Amino acid sequence: MRCTLGVDVGTSSTKGVLVAEDGRIVASATRAHDVDRPHTGWVEMDARIWWDEFTDIARELIGALRQAQGSEAAEISAVGVSGMGPCVLLADANDEPVRPAILYGVDTRSGAQIARMTDELGTSEITRVGGSTLTSQAGGAKIAWIADEEPDAWARAERFFMPASWLARHLTGAYVLDHQSASQTSPLYDIENESWYEPWWQRYAGSIEQPRLTWAGEIAGYVTAEAAEATGIPAGTPVITGTIDAWTEAVSVGAHEIGDLMLMYGTTMFLVATGEETLRTPSMWTTAGAFPGTRNLAGGLSTSGALTAWLKDLTGSDYPDLLADAEKSGPGANGLLVLPYFAGERTPIQDPDARGVIAGLTLEHTRGDLYRAALEATALGVRHNVETMRAAGADIRRIVAVGGGTQGQLWLQVVSDVTGLVQEVPATTIGASYGAAFLAASAIADPGAAPVITDWNPITQTITPNADLREFYDTLFDRYVRLYEGSKDVVHELAAEQRAHEQRGARRE
Question: What family is this protein classified in (predicted)?
Fold first, then answer.
């Protein structure tokens, strides 16, 4: 049996799948991990975990395949890689990390660098070159933070990686980065010319060797003898460059065509709208697409699954009980309204000092009301993003849902009811690892014989909004927007106090 191996490094776990030539998942494996939050606003991870988990998963899946099929019949024909991002991992000349990897927009430490770079370069010039203003999502600002704040680490840094490119490096020795990931290393990438922007690279990252730019589905290289020994994957096996998980998830469900919107339910919520035109708006992220000739307008909530997991742990409940209670609570959660900004917020408000707010609490409210309000909060955040995208000119014709959260029918229905959007759900929602396997299969296919994702993964469910709730949720959305505007001054003061409290604690230690 010929299979492709797809592995994705996510925020809370690394997932791998073996996929047969017809798209059937033969075996899967997962390794859970945690991020580190050493200070308020910092979210980072030891990148050595990424390769360790990849090797564990590869050996487990290959073992399962051989046990089922016999060693002679088992064949890994190509490897696909994917990972969370945009992350910043700097490594030395021996590819040893000089510090933990700084994660994507949920890490908000680079505020001073964003302000300085914006002042030095100008907002209009930054958006002209890279498409987006600088926010906590900007990889270039995180690189500048290391240069400013950790000179010893910076002095040793010679190469720049994200999770997918880190795996490709270990597997093949190739030093590459895909265009989509590079376009989120703002302001170091020129989106119209699809190249590194030399003047700003030299200014802010000059001591770092530039990774070669390729497209996500292109072959980066071939498994080395050393990597084969570590993973069990045969030497010489092709490995694609890969890209950031949200874009690979879009591939996994066929939501990467012009007019598509991919809605990813995970630890965070992510949205990717695909078009041909470079749309620029300060509220969202403008990026290169996963494929040549495409552009994306993207957005992300800083919490979604992370918020529901927090409530689960806080209440000591399990998800089935919470979902049953939330179902009983009903639309509006008996008068509760939540702002889901428990880790700051990314788009469209771009406010790292935003904080969670629970409004309307009484002694009569239950855990079911809280959980229902949390689900509605993420849905209201999705609506805020979609309306902002459309105002910027995005032509959204089709919405496809993906990710672990799609397993819960209530959450899907709440999002459709709040946004008024029809969602299509495919048969397989395992996510980015599946998309990586598809890209790998496509990379090695004969001309004219490439696999088709809708054959691999057809749509099996359609979620339709309840028209009777439209007026109710229009009113709730208005309150949601006004609640943020009305509370943000106080919330910002609290965020400043939280930082000051942490600094006092650090000095005492």
Answer: Belongs to the FGGY kinase family.
**The three-state (H, E, C) secondary structure of 45-90, written as one string:** ECCHHHHHHHHHHHHHHHHHHHHHHCCCCCEEEEEEEEECCCCEEE
State yes or no: cis peptide before 151, omega within 30 of 0: no
CB-count exposure of residue 387 (10 Å: 0-12, 13-18, 19+): middle
**Residue 448 covered by a domain:** no
In angstroms, the CA 390 to CA 404 distance is: 26
The parent domain of residue 387 ranges over: 254-427+466-509
Each residue's pLDDT tens digit, 142-197: 999 999 999 999 999 999 999 999 999 999 999 999 999 999 999 999 999 999 99
CATH code of 311's domain: 3.30.420.40
pTM, two decimals, is 0.85
Three-state secondary-structure class, residue 389: helix
Instruction: Indicate whether 113 belongs to any domain.
Output: yes
Residue at 435 is within a domain: no
Same domain, 310 and 185: no
Q: CA-to-CA distance for 224 and 234, rounded, in angstroms?
A: 8
Structural domains counted in the chain: 2
CA-CA distances (angstroms) from residue 270 to 25, 42, 48, 267, 368? Answer: 24, 20, 26, 10, 25
Pair (347, 493) in one structural domain: yes
- Please give the structure tokens belonging to residue 317: 């409940």
Widest CA span in the chain: 66
Q: Tell me, yes or no, whether 407 and 487 share the same domain.
A: yes
Let me know if residue 439 belongs to a domain: no
